[in-house]
Specification:
three-stranded antiparallel β-sheet; 3 helices; globular; 150 residues; alpha+beta
């Protein structure tokens, strides 16, 4: 098993971050990694998404939602190709800080027999892609927060 985890601090409330993160229709306007996503945000539901990393490796995913905690967590699990070859469990976690801002965690846990080869090829690029997504999420949330405060 291998994890790729990235984090960022966002000057916005957990609700503001949640609202941006769960507004799937807006993803094409801000998210360079998950550029299309649709489906019901409920445990047991299957999402439909398109993912691309910085090197434009694209893949269509149909992850199963494992857990939803409003204003706190989205967790899904996907399998690539055949069960057991390569599986991923993705986590978006919103942690409220003492000052009301957010510590955001964007993490993927990989397993399966192809995991070492897969990660050898794209691990660094995937980490960079997660960081880029985090930066864009931060911009969207802080921009939104500025408009609300004005």
């Amino acid at each position: 098993m291998k994890r790729i985890c990235t984090t960022i601090n966002i000057q916005a409330s957990p609700k503001d971050v949640w609202d941006v993160l769960t507004d799937f229709e807006e993803y094409p306007h801000w998210n360079p990694v998950i550029y299309r996503i649709s489906g019901k945000l409920q445990p047991g539901e299957i999402l439909d998404m398109e993912f691309k990393n910085r090197n434009y490796f694209k893949i269509n995913l149909k992850p199963l939602i494992m857990n939803i905690e409003v204003n706190r967590e989205i967790r899904w699990k996907e399998q690539f190709w055949i069960k057991g070859f390569l599986e991923g469990e993705h986590l978006f976690r919103i942690e409220e800080m003492a000052d009301g801002s957010v510590h955001f965690i964007n993490c993927e846990k990989f397993s399966g027999i192809l995991m070492p080869l897969f990660l050898y090829v794209i691990e660094k690029d995937m980490e960079n892609s997660f960081n880029i997504m985090n930066e864009q999420l931060k911009k969207m949330c802080e921009k939104r927060n500025t408009h609300v405060d004005a």
